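Tutorial sheet, problem 5. The two components below are modelled jointly, 765 residues in total.
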Amino acid sequence: MPDGNPRTRRAIPPAELLITGVHVLDPRAGLDEPRDILIRAGHIAELGAPGTLTDADAAGTETIDGTGKHAFPGFVDPHVHLRTPGQEYKEDLVTGTAAAAAGGFVTVVAMPNTDPVVDDPSILRALVDRAQQDAGIPVGFLAAITRGLGGGELTEMAALSDAGARGFTDDGKPVTSAGMLRKALQYQRLSGGVIALHEEDPALSGDGVMHEGAVSARLGLAGIPSLSESTMIARDAALAGYEDARVHIQHVSAEESVQALAAAKAAGARVTAEATPHHLTLTDEAVRSLDSRFKMNPPLRTDQDRRALLTALRSGVIDCIATDHAPHARHEKEVPFEQAPMGTTGLETAFAALHTDLVIPGELELEILIHRLSAGAAIFDLPVPRIAPDAPANLCLVDLEGQFIPGANGYASRSENCCFHGRRLRGRVLLTLAAGALAYRAPLDAPARTLSAR
Amino acid sequence: MSAQLAAKHLISIDDLDRSGIEQILDRAESFAEVAGREIKKVPALRGRTVVNLFYEASTRTSSSFELAAKRLSADVVSIRSAGSAVDKGESLKDTIHTLSAYDPAAIVIRSPHAGAAQLVAGWTPASVINAGDGKHEHPTQALLDAFTLRRRLGSLDGLNIWIVGDVMHSRVARSNILAFNRMGAKTTVCGPPTLLPRGIGALGCRVTPVLTGIDQADVIYVLRMQQERMREAFVPSLREYAARYQIGAGHLGPGQLLMHPGPVNRGIELSADAIDSPQALIGDQVKAGVAVRMAVLYELLAHAPALAAAA
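Model answer (structure tokens):
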């Protein structure tokens, strides 16, 4: 299998860079102090006390004054929709990875619910080739569990694995049949790769468009009860335990789901889980506006659910953060709430939204946030970014005081359906190095620069 | 006269406080008087345009809005989705931009989707009046119901009002709970458990699946069984529904009033003898529709300087 895979992005010259006096926070390395970071040929050559490293011995090395800024291990997003192939009017590999890099991400994992669905090795190979031309950062691809996401017939999982699949998912849809999922879990012994699950019982979610509760009752919108998710998690964790398979629960949204997950983990099932920035910061109260930016699946739930997710993220019951970046074109979202497609973009705002809404008010420790923003890597057998000597440069430089308003200067993403649109957020990514190469640098002329002056 | 309403649009009963509702009802009283004249027309909106845009079948709401605008001397354009550009795939946004080019003072919209009126308000300089959006709200229905009750009883303060039937699919129920409560009444919603949405009590109503205690109600407001909005069977059969929840003349104690937003499913939610009983206000409700919608148009538009006159 591909390892780190710089091969799944376009060729970019390796970085030669000296960042001085930057506060390095790498929870896995136990590092939380100012450092000079010297990057040579895309690798971290040296980490030194502030003021000890120079670039004098190399021509062409740029020096960046990192004083007052933070360097974090680059973020890894295990759940994005890059819409290629087939829906490039929403996003493509160029714009999607540019959005990721702008948000400090150094690797993303793309979902297979494209058009056509990534359910065949030839489609996957073509996609990997495309990524080698277009992607600005490495992209891991998941393949479908069932052909056409139809739920009726397994894909050639082993062949897809050979073609580079990092795992399998029917994301966007649940695997409704327990029998079908069980076969996939059995086949995982041959194919390897985690099976990622969108948990929803369609018999309970029906034609629901938001969380079922007081707000849906007020608005007259059909609700999606929390137990449409939690009952499926309980079912699938039991199946995974029985088959000793590895499953990953996508975008957990409800308190009952957290309880089901905690029980499964306590019972020893090999199950991991992710939560999104929007479920960790917003509630169904936002839907009172009937703004389709707040329409996503699973839906925004209550503050009690949000708090349960946060507690689970801190304790590790939820392992990692995933954006479920789901771009949709303006004309698709500019319709009444019930008619709009589900999904919000999230790559460019993930860190800033979580920092603004959780870290600054004291609900979440910065080091836990930084850890969870790259914890998805290990789940999908991707390299875990580290700020350590000899490691490939996978890091982002962030100004925690820097403010910006999502959308005020447009988006790197092709779409603008961001649920944090128009909010003032604090915590601005200045620079991203992915797999040893410069993937993003904040524009110098952006007004945020003056705001970030200290 | 009274001050201009704070709201530019009427999207939800939440756009009005009690004094705003009373201002509209007071105005409607004077327009009800106009309806008694031989020439039922006043010049309040002369030279101004009102667009009625109906994406759903409607008889009484669309005809009463049209009559209301005409009795205020406005120029009226009525568009139904069948046969219009909407039918040819035009988006709501493009339709609104097109219609806004005619410089209407108001756009009255009915849509099968919650939030449509609110979206429209963001796309046009005209005042927007929600004539029903999905299962969300139907504020002019609630106003005409409050008007009907106030006319009959003088006030809604302290009234015990039961709203019975398919609450889940009813925009009328939502707007009426809000309006009745705002006017000082206490509301109870009652219906089959599968048609009482979880969380509806947060609107400020009592919730019960049985008719027990309905003899204490001052007003029984019966909802239409909205078979057209049901995509699955919420009740085992209409026969069982009728057996449990149908209001007949036998339910009506002396002094109890009966209301229904129409159109009635005779023999399902109401028995024929109840519909025809003197305690039924159903005809009064229809009659109130024109006066109340005139009042809404007048209060939203007439105080604002006419763009045509200013030009």
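Marking note: The longest strand of chain A covers residues 17-26. Full credit if you identified this.
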